[in-house]
Every structure is written in structure tokens, then in C-alpha cells.
Design brief:
Number of strands of chain B: 0
Radius of gyration of chain A: 21 Å
Strand order of the largest sheet of chain A: 1-10-9-6-7
Number of strands of chain A: 10
CATH topology of the largest domain in chain A: Immunoglobulin-like
Number of domains of chain B: 2
Oligomer: heterodimer
Distance between the termini of chain B: 38 Å
Distance between the termini of chain A: 47 Å
Helix content of chain A: 10-25%
Number of domains of chain A: 2
Structural class of chain B: mainly alpha
Shape of chain B: globular
Number of helices of chain B: 9
Radius of gyration of chain B: 19 Å
């Protein structure tokens, strides 16, 4: 490829490469670098498997009703974390039901709470910015959600 | 919603391996934060460029960036084809953009043509390699190349004044520096990538 380019074409390509990098806001790059902090965190990353905001059936219901429920489900190989927004709180349940510790990670830090025997937990107030939940089972295994913005 | 790898590949890219990406992934998986930062530096422009097609708010852009890179951190050491990192990142970015765009707007967002994303992958790999080649230049070339590729461009008279090089020497030095770029080890992996010439073909 490069052998076919004359000096002008190579210069133009270099210019494009520099321009593409210069267009990226520094916070966007920093967000990527910060993600490495999760590299050594012992936790299985659960996949977002349901989001009422993007589910076609849920959206159809939401359009036909005055009040709609915002619900999310994160699924890992071992358990699911179901979330629902109600009255300014985030209600959650771990399925299959089990007790455990729950960490809410935000930019400001980590808040620790717990899930009861039925797997229920509450996060109140709902973090205003992006947050992530990490659940620890009584066996010492951890499952975490992706970043959530509500 | 998932984008199959085959759809984001284009003829000429299929089977292409970027050894630099694979090496960086291996080092990052082993705990090297510097290698991870380099992965982000190399591919953030591609992730950003894909995001701009979806007209996302800053809040949604942050959501996408956080989740795309978190997913990659999770996949370090597990990617089936680390050399095809750019294609994986492009597909993941596109999927995350579609998710947040739908969640925010509650509408079917405009879906960019998958072929454009395939081109994006080629361009991203090429741009990353070219930036790496520029960074490897010796001090005798760096300031001259910076001025030559700047937009808008500097005139030879301006370059002569700024760098203290006689105008008649700029041309030959420019040619030598471009030769060093062509020979740069950063571009070795690019030799077998197809792709359009930059700036169009004047003969076409």
C-alpha cells in the first residue's frame, strides 16, 4: 500500500491520522484509560440482557400507559441481578434469591450495603451519574454489572 | 442486534492481523497499564468517530465509553482474535451506541451502514500505525513533520523561520523524513492492508 503512495499522499494520510486523534476530547480518552482499574477486580461481568428502555414490547406498553416501569436485568453464568426504579429508589433482586454484599461504585466512591435472604436490596438515592453494582455471594464469588446511567 | 464479525470485515481486511494490537493486548492482560493506555490511545479515535454518527449527548457518550472499555478489560486475554481488536472494538462500540441511543430517545435510531464501519476499521488501523510511525521519528524530523501535516498547512517560508532551516533545504529534508516514515517498523503490519489512497486519486 505505502509503496504506491507518493510523498503528497503520504503527507495527506499523516495529516488525516493526526486530525482524527485531535478530534477526540481528552475526557473520552481518559475514560478509556480509567477502565483499566477494573482489570484486577475479582468479578464476573454480567451482560445487560434486558432494558425496558430498549425492549420493543416494554416500549409499546410504556406508550399505552401513563406510568412506565424502568427495569434492567444483568445476567452472568451464575446469577442475575434484576433492577427496577421506583419512587426515587433503585430496587433490586438477585436471582436465584440469596443473601450477599452489594457495592455501589460511582465516581465519588464505593457504598456498601447488603442483599437479604430473598436477594432483595435497595440503592437509595439513585446515583445521579453513572454507577456500577458488584454483588458478592456468601461463597466469596463476585458478579458485577456494566455501567448504568439512569 | 449484535454485529457479526463477518459483516464488519471488508474484502482485503479479512484475515488481516495487526500484530501490534495483539502484542498490546497480551501485555495489558498481564497487568501492564502502559500497554492498556496505548490500546486506548490507538483506538479511541475510531471509537469516537463511530460514536459521532449517533448524535449522542455527552452523558450517553460517557456511558458508551465506560462500557466499551470495561467490556474490553473483561475480554483481555480472552479475545479469540486479539489481532482483530479494531474490528471487535468497532462492533462493540456500534452495539453500545445503538443501545444508549435507543434508551435515550426511545426511537429507532438511524443505523449507520455497516460498510462504513468496515472502512472505519481499516482507517483506524492505518491511522494508528501512521501516528506510531510519526512518534518514532528522530528529533531531526519531528518538528518539521508536525508543521508539514498541520491543518491549515504552513508555508515553506514560515517553516524556514520557525525551524531555522533554509527554504531550499526543506524539500530534501521532507523527502528524507517521509522515507523514514515508510521504513518505520510501526508500518510493517500495514503492508498487506488494502484501502483507498488518502486525498483521492488525482489521476481518476
Amino acid at each position: 500500500m505505502l509503496e504506491d503512495w507518493d510523498d503528497e499522499q503520504l503527507l495527506a494520510a499523516l495529516g488525516e491520522a493526526i486530525k482524527a486523534r485531535a478530534a477526540v476530547p481528552s475526557w473520552f480518552v481518559q475514560t478509556g484509560k480509567n477502565a483499566y482499574a477494573w482489570h484486577n477486580i475479582d468479578a464476573e461481568l454480567a451482560q445487560l440482557t434486558y432494558d425496558s428502555r430498549t425492549d420493543a414490547d416494554a416500549m409499546a406498553v410504556a406508550r399505552s400507559e401513563t406510568a412506565s416501569i424502568l427495569a434492567l436485568t444483568f445476567t452472568s453464568a451464575h446469577l442475575s441481578i434484576e433492577l427496577e426504579v421506583a419512587d426515587g429508589s433503585l430496587l433490586g433482586q438477585v436471582v436465584p434469591p440469596q443473601a450477599g454484599t452489594l457495592e455501589t461504585h460511582t465516581k465519588a466512591g464505593i457504598t456498601t450495603s447488603s442483599a437479604d435472604e430473598a436477594g432483595f436490596f435497595t440503592v437509595r438515592p439513585i446515583p445521579p451519574g453513572p454507577f456500577l453494582l458488584r454483588f458478592g455471594t456468601t461463597d466469596g464469588a463476585y458478579v458485577m454489572t456494566g455501567w448504568i446511567t439512569l | 442486534m449484535g454485529l457479526k464479525a463477518s459483516r464488519i470485515r471488508v474484502p482485503g481486511l479479512a484475515g488481516h492481523d495487526d500484530p501490534a494490537a495483539a502484542a498490546l493486548c497480551t501485555r495489558a492482560a498481564a497487568g501492564d497499564q502502559g500497554a492498556w493506555d496505548e490500546v486506548v490511545e490507538r483506538y479511541a479515535p475510531m471509537v469516537w468517530s463511530i460514536c459521532t454518527r449517533f448524535r449522542l449527548s455527552d452523558r450517553d457518550l460517557e456511558d458508551v465509553a465506560q462500557n466499551v472499555w470495561l467490556l474490553l478489560v473483561d475480554q483481555l486475554g480472552k479475545l479469540p482474535e486479539p489481532a482483530a481488536l479494531a474490528a471487535w472494538l468497532a462492533a462493540t462500540t456500534r452495539r453500545e451506541c445503538l443501545r444508549v441511543a435507543t434508551a435515550s430517545r426511545g426511537l429507532e435510531p438511524l443505523e449507520p451502514d455497516a460498510r462504513v464501519t468496515g472502512e472505519e476499521v481499516i482507517m483506524a488501523e492505518r491511522n494508528a500505525a501512521l501516528r506510531a510511525a510519526l512518534a518514532e521519528l528522530p528529533a531531526s524530523c519531528q518538528p518539521l513533520m508536525d508543521m508539514l501535516v498541520s491543518d491549515p498547512p504552513y508555508s515553506y517560508a514560515q517553516i524556514s523561520t520557525a525551524l531555522g532551516i533554509p527554504v531550499e533545504c526543506i524539500g530534501p529534508r521532507r523527502a528524507r523524513c517521509l522515507e523514514r516514515i515508510r521504513e518505520s517498523s510501526a508500518l510493517l503490519g500495514l503492508a498487506d492492508i488494502g484501502g483507498n489512497r488518502p486525498g483521492g486519486d488525482p489521476g481518476a
